[in-house]
Structures
1.
Amino acid sequence: MLDITHIPGLAIRTSFSQEVLKEGELFFICGPEGEVYHEHNAGFGLYYRDTRYLSCLEMGLTEGNLLFLSSSIKDSHFAQFELTNPALDRGNHVIPASTIHIRTLRVLDNALFQRLRLINFNPMPVMITLQFTLGADFRDIFEVRGFIRKQKGEIFTPVSTREGVLFGYRGRDDLCRYTSVSFSPYPDSVEVNEEKNLATARFSLTLPPGRKVYLYMQVKPFIGNKPDPASTGGSGTVAAGFSGAVRKTSSLYEKWKEQCTQFKSDNVFLSNMLRRNVTDLCALCTRYPDLGTIVQAGIPWYAAPFGRDALITSWQALIVNPDIARDSLYFLARLQGKEDNPWRDEEPGKIPHELRRGELAACGEIPHTPYYGSVDATPWFIILLSETYRWTGNKQLVLDLAPNLFAAVEWCRKYGDRDGDGFIEYAVRSPAGLTNQGWKDSWDGVIDPRGSLPTAPIALVEVQAYYYLALKRAAEMGRVLGKNDWACELEQEALVLQRKFLEAFWMEDEEYLAFALDGDKKQVKTIVSNPGHCLFTGILPEELAVAVARRLLASDMYSGWGIRTMSKSMGPYNPMSYHNGSVWPHDNAIIAYGLRCYRQFDLLEKVVSGLFEAAMSFPYHRLPEVFCGFTRRRDGGPVHYPTACDPQAWAVGTMPLLIRTMLGISCWGNEVRVSAPQLPPWVQEIQICNLTTGCGTVDLEFTRKQGKAYCGVLRATGNTRVIIEN
C-alpha cells in the first residue's frame, strides 16, 4: 500500500485514538469524543465510494463545548459516546457541571444514524440550546491523503430544509453528489455559512428532571439526481430508521458470528481479541453489486478492494471462515487482467492491486479502475486457491477458476519474468503507478544498506518463494483438473527455480538471504524481514531455513514486541518509518507460520507472545496495521505509528493465524489435522468451536498438562475426521 506520509507536501494532523464504523461501502471515522472537526480533522468523516460526504460534525451547547466522558464500539458496528455539560451560568443561577448526561449512539445502514438521549439530573427543568455544525467537502479520499488536483468540481451552497440541511457537489466526472442531513424533531433554526460551506442546526430543548429526551439525526449520501424530501427522511422516518438499523446490523453480526469459528480461552484478553477479530472481518467484508464480496484492506485509507491484502487476509482467516477466501477469489478473478495496458500496469492474467470508485478514478486522474501494480498478488492468488481447496475440499471452486489459474500461471511465466531468467521482477510502467510493487510498496520500501534506491527491474526475495510455492500448488491443482503433463512441467520449473534462487539470493557472509536482485542482477544486501516469508513456502533446505529463522529473532531484528521490517544495523533504519524499521503484525504472522514449518517452537512462542503483549497496549486490544520498531522497555508499551489503519485486514487476520499456527491446525477436506500443538505460557486452555472444514464442523479443546499441550475432540459433524499427532 502507498505510504501516505511520504507524499511531498502532505501534512495530516493525526490522532492515535479513533472510532470507526463501517457497513458496506460506507464508513465513518471520528475522534474518541465523537467529533469530526472542521479544522484539522485528520481525515475523519463519513465516506462512501471513495468520497467524503461529511467533513464536519461538531456538537455543543451555545454556552460552550460538552465534556467528554468515554466512548466504545460494540462488535465493530455500534458506537456509544458518553458526554456531559460544563457549568452553565444563567445569570441568577448556575447549572452545575455534570448534571446533564448525553448518550450518543451511532450505527450505519446505508446512512449514518445517530440518537442522542439526554437526562437532566437537576431537581428543576433545564433549558438548553444544542447545536450541530455540519459540513461536506466531497473530497476524493486521494485528495484527503494529499493528492493535488489541478481542477476541481463545483461545490453547491448548502440549502437549509425543514428537516435539516442539504449539501451538494458536481464533480468533473459530471456526477452530482449530495449529503442530506435530517433531524427528528426538526431543528428550530438552520444557519448556513456560505464562505466555509458549513451549516449549524440549533435545537431549543427543555429537559424535565429525570426524564429522557431523544434527538435523532440521519446523514445520507446520494449520487446522481438531487434527492427529494421523501427520500431524505422526515421526522418519523429518521427515528424509525435508527431503530431499524440497530436491529438489522445486530442481526447481521449475530448471524456472522454463528457462521464463524468461536474461540474460547481461559485468558479473557485473548478471547476478547479473537472475538473482535471475527467482528472486524465482518465489517471489512464488503459486497459490490456487480463484482461480489471481498474483504477490504483497511480503514480509513484502504477501504477498498486490494488484491494482495484480500488474498493474504483470506489465507489468515481460513480458520475463522473459509467463505472469505472463496468470495475474494471469485471477486479478483472477475477483475483479472485482460490486456496490456501500461497506464494501469495491467497485463493478461495479472491479479489487480487496487480498485477505486471515486471521482479521481472516474476522471482518469488516477489509474485505479482497477490498478494492477502488484508483483505478488498473482502468485498469492494461486496459493490461496490451493489452500482454500485443501481446506474445504471444494473441487467446484478449482473447476470454476481453472481459466483464471491457467492465466495466472502464464502471467508469472511470461509477463512476471520480464527477462526470461526464471525470476519474477517488477518495474513500474504507469506514470501514476507505484515505484515499488511488493508488499513494501512505499517509495523507499526497497533500499540498499547505504540508503540508495536500487534500479529496476527488481526481483524481491519473497516473491520468488511465493512463485516457487505457486508452481507446486498449481501443479497439484493441475492434476485435479486432469492436466498431468502441465503439472509435471510446473514441478520441474519449481525445482529449477529453487536451485537458481539459492544460488542468486543466499549471502554466505551473512548466512541470510538478500532483500532482492536489482536491475543488474546484483544482490540488494539489506537485512530485512522479507526472507522470513520464504520459510512457509518450503523453498529453503532445513539448514538454511533455521539460519534465517535465528537471524530474524536476533536483537537487531526483534524489538521485543515483534520482528522489525529492517535491522537496526542498516543505514536506512528508522523505527518510525513505514517499511524500514517498523513492526508489521501480518509480516510477523507469516514468519511465525514458517517457523512452525521447521519446528522452531521456541522462536514461534517468542513472536506470538510479543505480538499478544503488544496488542494489550492498543485500543480494544486490536493490533494496528503497523507500529514503531523501538526496542521494548520495561516501563512502556509499543509506540504507535501515526497514520496506521485500524482496523486493517491483515492485522485483523494476524491473531487467528497465530492461534492456528501455535495449535498446529490444518484441514484437508473432511480431515482436520492437529500436529504438535503448542500453548504459550499465558494460556492454559483454549477451545476452537464450530471450525468449518469440508462438509462438517468440529469442536476442539486444547489444554496444558505438565508443560505440554494436548488436544481433545469435543464434537464432530459431517463425517469429519480428526487426526492428532503429538
2.
Amino acid sequence: MPAVLTVQDAVQQSYADAADTIRAQVLDAAQVAARGAAIKAANDYLIRMIEQAKLARHRLYGASSEQMAALQRGLFDEAESLARDTSQEQDVAPQSPADGKAKDKSAGQNKRGKRTALPGELPRVDVVHEVPESERTCPCGTPMAVIGEEVSEQLDIVPMQVRVLRHVRKRYGCPNGTHVPVTAALPPQPIPKSNASANFLAMLLVAKYLDGLPLARFEHVLERHGALVPRQTLARWVIGAAAVLQPLHNLMRDLLLDGQLIHMDETVMQVLKEPGKAPCSHSYMWVQTGGPPERPIILYDYDPSRSAEVPVRLLEGFRGYLMTDGYEGYNALARTPHIEHLICWAHVRRRFVEAVRVQAKGKRGLADQAIDLIGQLYGVERELRNASDAQRLQGRQERSLPLLASLRIWLDGVLPAVPGKTKLGEALTYLHKYWPKLVRYVERGDLPIDNNRCENAIRPFVVGRKGWLFSDTPAGAHASAVIYSLVQTAKANGAEPYEWLCQVLRDLPTATTVEQVEALLPWHFGTAVAGLQEQA
C-alpha cells in the first residue's frame, strides 16, 4: 500500500525538485561559460602564436626599417647597382677649389650626379709629366717653351707603415770620473715598460673601437707588415690605455651630471669570465648622452647587472630630465628627488609598427591609425627643428597639445575593446601606462620627443660587437666602455679620433693638474694636427 504524503512532504519534494532543476541550469550555464572562456582563451593563444610567427619570420627575412629594405635589395650587387647610374666623366674627380685654380663658386659643391671635389686639406704630391724632348720642336723649327699646364687629381693612399722608434738617451759624465754620469730622461710613456708608442696605441684603439676590427684580425694586419704582436699583448695594451684615459672619462661624467637633460639606454654584451656568471649569460653596457649642444658627451659604462641599482649609481647627484624607454629598471631612478622622467615616443610607435606587421596584408587597422596620429606629432617636431626653444615651446603648445588630446580620446575609445595579449593590445597598454611621462616633452622647448639620440650612440657599440663578439674579462669590458666613450665623444665634437688620441696619449702622462687634463677634452682639440706634422 503506497505511503500517503502529507502537504509538508509534498512541499519539501517540490522544493527539492526545483532546487535540482535550478542546480542543473546553473551547472549548464557554468559549463557554457567555461566552454566559452576556454574557446576564447584558445583563440587568443592562437592569435598570439600567429603574431609571434609573423614577427619571427619578419626578423629573420624582413628589413628592420624602410631604409634597410632598399639597402638589402642591392646588398649583393652593390658595385653593379651603383656603377649602373654613373658616367665616364664621374671617374675624374673635379679639382679642389683650395688649389686656387677653380674660379667657379660652385666648384666644391656636390651637384646632383657629380662627385665632390677632393678635400683641400689633404696633402698634395705633384707628379710632373714632361713632353718628350723629341716632341718639343715646333714644325716651323722653333724650340717650344712652357706656356702653361693642365692639372688633374687622383685620390691616392699610402698603406699603414709600421716602424720602430729608437729613443736614444744621451749620457754625460765628468772626464775625470769624479761624479756620477747624467743620462737624459725618457719622457713619460702611456704604458710604462711597454714598447707601444702613443701613436701605436691610438691606432689600436681606433681600429678596434671605431672600425670594429677584432684584436685577432689586427694581429694579422701587423703580421703582414712585419710586426709580430700577439693578440694577448694587444689586449693588455688596450686595458692599459684605458687606465691612462680614465681621468678623461671621469671628467666627462662630472660635466654630464651638471647638465639638465640626460638620455639613457642599455644593451647586452657577453663577458666570458664574469665571476659568478655563466660565460653565455648576459651582461650590459649602459649608455648616457647629454651635455650642452656645443659640447655633447657620450658615456658608456659596463655592469654585469641590469638591475635598477645601476642607473641610480651611475646618475647619482643628477638633477634634471631623464629620457629613457619603458624599461621598469629606470623607475627607481625616476622616483629619486629632482629627476623628471620622460618616456620615448619612438618606442611607442615601434610597438604599433609590430602590430601592423601581424595584421592582414592590404588592410588598415587601429595600429595604422595610431601610427598616423604619432606621425603628426613628429611632423610638428620636424617643422620646429631649427626653431629656438621659445618658438618650439609655443609651437608645441599650439599644435602638439591638441594632437595629444585627440590621441588620448582615441586611446580611451579603442583600449577596452582590444584583447590585451595581442600585439595591438600590448601597444595600446604601453601607451596608456606611460601616457603621463610621454606628454611631458611639451612642457618645455628644449626637451626631446624621443630617445633616438641615445639609441644612435648605442649603434656603434652594437656594430662593433658583431665583430669582436665578447669581452674576455670584466677589466676588458670596462676598458671598452672607457674607450668607446672617448672616441664617440670625440666624433660628436668634430675631433678626428685618431689624431686626438695621439695627442692625448702623448700629453696625458705628463699632466699633473686637473686643468691640464681638462685641456685635453675633445672640444679643446686643435693642436694635434700641427703636432703630428712636426713629429713627422
3.
Amino acid sequence: MSKTELVSLPNVPRRRRFFRVAWFFVRLVAHIIVWDLLLGRQFWFRWYADRTRIERYRRFSRRFRDLAIDLGGVMIKLGQFASTRVDVLPPEVVEDLIGLQDEVSPVPFGLIQATIEAELGQPISQIFAHFERQPVAAASFGQVHFATLHDKQPIAIKIQRPQIEQFVAIDIAALRWVAGWMQYYGPIRRRTDLPALIEEFSRITLRELDYLSEAEHAERFRRNFAGNEHIYVPQIYREHSTERILVMERIEGIKISEYAALDAAGIDRLDLAEKLYLAYLQQCFTDGFFHADPHPGNLFVRPVGEPLANGKRAFVITFLDFGMVDAIPQYVMDGLATMAAGVVMREPQRIIDGARSIGVVMANANDQQLRQALEIWFSYTYGRTIRELQQIDVEGFVGGLSELLYDLPFQLPQSLLFLGRTVGIIGGVAAGLAPDFDIFSVTKPFALRFIREQTSGRDLRERVVNEGRELITDLSQIPRHAKQFYAKAAQGDLQVRTEIVKLERTTKRIERAFTRLTAGIAASALLISASILQTMHIDNPWMWWLAGGLLLWALLPRFKDN
C-alpha cells in the first residue's frame, strides 16, 4: 500500500464519534449529580444509594470499557488511568478496566507495512533482516512489533495507528464540550478551570503523537538516570525513526502488575515499590522532568544476577513510552518540596506555604482553618502504610473535614494536571505492589535533605536578600497607606470587617431550614385542602401538583455558589 493509499482511507465518522464520547460523560455526570449529590443526601434514600453504588458504577465501567475498546484513542488513555486507581476506586470497577490495554485491536499488517515503507522510503525487507508480523503490544495510539536489524541487533518498533490524529482531535473536542458545560456547576467552577485543564491535556496528548519528540524525551531520561543501577531506559535508534515510527532497543521483562510472576522471580515487591517511588522523587524534585504515563504496560521489571541468601533477587525497572512527559517549573518544584517536607515533619504551616507558592491555595485562604484541616488529616493518615490508609474511617475523616474545607479557596493549577494524574497512577501501582509500603518513612530522608539545603549558607543569604527587598518595598508604601487611612477616618468612611465564617454558615443553614419548613407547611396545607375538596367531589389537580412541587423543593438539598 502506497502513501497515497494511506491518505485515501475512509473518513472518520466525526459526528457519531463526538456524540458517543460526549453522551457517555454527560450520562455519568448526570448520574453522579442525581444519585450521589441530590437523592443520596436524603436520609430516606441514602441507604438505597449506598447499597447500589458499586453495582451502578460497575455498569458505567463496563459501558466505558466497551466504548474504549470500540473507539480506542483518548478513551484507552482514560481507562488506563482509572484502572490504576486501586487506592480510590472499588476493586470491582478496577477489575472491569484493568485488562483494557490488552484488548485494543491491532492494526492489520498491511497498513503497518505501508506506513513503515512510506515513512522510511524503502521496502521493509531492505530495512530489517527479520520483522514479526504479529504485534507484541497494541496501544491506544500505536502498536509495537519485534524485528531484527541487518547487524543482528534485536529491536522493537512502535508504529502509529492510521488516522489516529483525527480520532484524538474528535475525542478532545468532545471532552472540551463536556468540560464547558460542567463549568456552569458552581462547586466545580470555584475549584478549577476545567476548560483550561482540557487544553493542557490536549497539548500533552497531541505532543505524544510526535515520535521524534518521544525519542528526545527518552534520551533525556536516559541521561538523568545514567548513574542509577535500578532504572533503565532503552536506547533509541534515530536513523530509523520518524514522526510516526520509533525504533528502540528490545527489552525483556515482567510487567510490574504481574504479581505472581514477580514473586516467582524472587522480586521483593516492597523494595520494588520503594525504588519506583524514589525514581519519581528524583524526577519531580531533582530533574524537573517526569514520565507522566506510568501505567503497568509501560513499566517492566528485569531480574538481575543470582538469588541472594534470603531468596530475593536484584532487579532493574525499565521505563517505556516517553510520549507523555511534562516539565515542572522551578517554583513548582520548590513548592512541592516544601509541602513534602511539611508532610513528613508534620508541620501544617510548611505545607500551607508550599501549597500557596504553587497556586493550589489562593492568597486569601484562612491559614487557621487550613491548619485545623491538616491536623485532622494527620490524625487519620500520618505514619500509616497503604494497607492501613485503605482501612481508615472514611465517614469520620470526611465528616471532620467537610465543615472546614467548604469555604477554603482551593484550585488545581494547569501546571499540576499531569503531575496529579501521575501521582494517582503511581499511588495505585504502589498499592497493588505492596500494601505495607510506608510512603512517609521513604520520603523522610528526602525531606530532611531538602530542609538542610534550605538552611545552607547560600540559600539563607538569598532568602535574607529577598526578604530585605520585600521589607524595603513594604516600608516605602507605609506613608501612602497611612494617608489613605486617615483620609477615610476623617470622612467617616472607615470600615472594619470581621470574618466569622462559621457563624455566617450557621446563619445560612438556619435560613435554609426555616425556608424548607415554611415550604413543608404550605405543602401540607395544600394537601389537606385538596383532600377535603376531593371528599366534596371537587377536583383541583393544580393543588396536588403545587403541593408536590413545594414538597420536592423542600426536600432537595441546596447547592451554594458563594
4.
Amino acid sequence: MAPTALLSVSDKRGVVPLAEALHRLHGYQLLSSGGTAKVLEEAGLPVTRVADHTGAPEILGGRVKTLHPRIHGGILARRGDSAHEADLREQKIDPIDVVVVNLYPFRETVATPDVSWDTAIENIDIGGPTMVRSAAKNHAHVAVLTSPEQYDRFLEALSGSAGGVDANVRRQLALEAFAHTAAYDVAISRWMQSRPELQPDVEAAAPAEALPWLEALPLRQTLRYGENPHQKAAWFSSPMGWGGAKQLQGKELSTNNLLDLEAALATVREFGYGSSGLHPAEQAAAVVVKHTNPCGVAVGDGVAIALTRALDGDRISAFGGIVAMNSVVDGLAAKELTSLFLECVVAPGYSPEAREILAAKGNLRLIELAPEAIDAAPKDHVRSILGGVLVQDLDDQPIDPSAWTVASQRQPTASEHADLRFAWQLVRHVRSNAILVARDGQSLGVGAGQMNRVGSARLALEAAGEQAVGAVLASDGFFPFDDTVRLAASHGIKAVIHPGGSLRDADSIKACDELGLAMVLTGRRHFLH
C-alpha cells in the first residue's frame, strides 16, 4: 500500500513543491481539503479530497471537515499493534503517514488593532490543532510538519533514508508541533484576556496570572550568538512588537543589537512614534543608545535636526551605537547617519532617497517598525532569572507635571520647567543610579549605572562640561544627601528634579535655597536595573 500524506495548510508557501516531491519522488498518495486541495489540483497533482475520503461532506461552512474517525484513526493508529490494525481493517481506514498542517492565521488577524470579536473567533482553528496533536502524539509512526521552513529539512531526511524518516527526525518534528499548538493557544488566551468584552469588574489580575503567552512564544530566529560569542542565543517572538519589524538591509541582528534597539525605542517613544503617536504639538525626536543607555537624545524641527542634535550630545559614545527616530527618515537625516559608524537604525519608515543613501552602508542594519506593531504588543516587562522569569508592568506611564511640587523657594522659570520635563522623560531610560543633564530639548550629559548617585552626577556633569551652565539635572531616585545638589550647583546647574522621599530631603532643599537652585519633586521614582 502506498503511503499517504495529508496536507491542509493556511500558509501555502512551498506546499506545491512539497506535495510534488512526496508524490512524484516518494510515491505518496495526497489527501487534502479546502483551499489546499484546490491549490494542489491547479498544480496538476492527483488529490483525494477529505470529504471523498471520509464519505462525509464538509459542514457548518467548513468548521467540520477533518474531525472524522477515518482521518484521526489513520493518524493515531499504531503500526504493528494487532488490535489497532484490526480496527483499521474493520472500519476500512487507511493509515496516514505524513501530516502537513499549519493553522488559521489567528495571531496575524488579531494584530489588526480594530479587529472585531467575531472575526477573531472565526479565525480560531479547531481541526488543525487536533490533527497536529494527533500526529505529534503518534510520532513513532507519523511525521508532522507545521511550517514551510521544515519542508526542505524533511525532504532531505526522507531522501536519505530507505526506510522512511528517521525516528529522531520525527521526535524533533513532534516537539516543534506541540510548541506550535501551544503558542497558538496562548495567543488566543492572551488576546481574549486583553479584550474589553472579558474585563471583569474586579481588581486586575497579578502579572503572573495575566500572562499565559509567556509559556510559549514561537521561535523567530536563531541568533549568531548571545551577548558574547561563546553564548548560544535565540529570539522568540510573537508577530507583534519587534516580531513585526522588517529588516531592510544590513547584517543579521545580534542579541546586543536587539537589547539596544529595545532601549532606544522605549526612549524615543516618549515623544510619540510615527502615525500613531505624533501630533502637531510634538517634535521629531532622535535617540542614540550605547550598551542600553541613551548617550544622546534630542528633539528638533525635523528628523535631521533632531538627529544631529542627538549625535552632538556625545559623538564619541555614539560611535558604534544604535539610533531610533520617531518619524520617517528623510534624505538629510540619512546623510547624517552616514557620517559615523553605527550598528542599527530603527524608525517607522524611510524615504526612497534615504534608502538610496543608506544602501552605501551595506552592513548598517535598517529596521522599519510600524506604530501598529508596537500598539498591538503586550505592555509587559519580562526578565529572566535562574530558573524563572520576573514580570512587571512597563514603566511607560505618561508624565504628569500637575502632580509635581516645587520644594525650593525659587520657582523654576518656564524654560527651566520645559527642560525639567524633558530630562524627567529621559532619566527613566537610564540605568540606575541615573543622572541626566539637559537643556533646550537636548541631552548634554548622562551618568548611568554607578553604585552611588554622586558618581553618576559627576559623570553627567563632566560630560556636559561648560554646557551645564544654565542647564537642569534629573535624578531617577531621591537625593539621600545634599552632595549631589552642591556638585550640580558648582557646575552651573539652575534646576533639579527628583522623586523626593528621603528622610533628609530637607538638607537638599536647604542647599537649593542657599545656592539659588529650583527643585521639583515628582513623587515617583524610576529605577531601571
